[in-house]
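We emphasize that the prediction below concerns an isolated chain of 147 residues; any contacts that depend on oligomerization or on bound cofactors are therefore not represented. The input was used exactly as deposited, without trimming of termini.
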Amino acid sequence: MKNIVFLLILFSFNSAFSQNSVSIKGEWNATDFWNNDSKFIFSEDGYISMTVNGQLIDGKNFIIRGGKTDGEKLEIKYDINYSKSPIELDIVALKIENGKQKEDGRMLCILKFINSNEAYIIISKGARDSDFNDENKERIVKLLRQN
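Result of the prediction step, given as a C-alpha cell string:
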C-alpha cells in the first residue's frame, strides 16, 4: 500500500513539473553587457525577430542591405532543446536559394531561466559555452519577458 501511495505522489509531482515548464516563446527585452537594449521576439513557428541599433530584423523576411550579398533574403529561426541541461538555444540564419532554405550560419547559445519572466543567454564563440562568469560577461544577454 505504501508503494502505491508513493507512486501516486511521484506521478503527481512529475505531472506538475511538466505542466509548469517555462518557454522562451514571446516578447523579451534584452540588455547586453554595455547596457544596450533591444527586443527579441521568439514566435510560435520558430522564427526569431529582434531589434539591433533600433532597427527591426524580421526573422521571417530579412533582406540583406549592403555588401556582396545585398538584396538576398534570409530567414532567422531558433532551435531550442529544453531536454538538455543547460538548455541549448541556437539562432540559425537560413538563406533562401531557389525557394529552399539552406543554413548559412548558426550561433550556439545557452539559455538559463531565473524564473518564468527572466532569463540569461550566453552567446558562444565557436564551441558552446555554458559558464555564466566574469570571463564571459561581454557575451551574456539578460532577458525580461514583456508578455
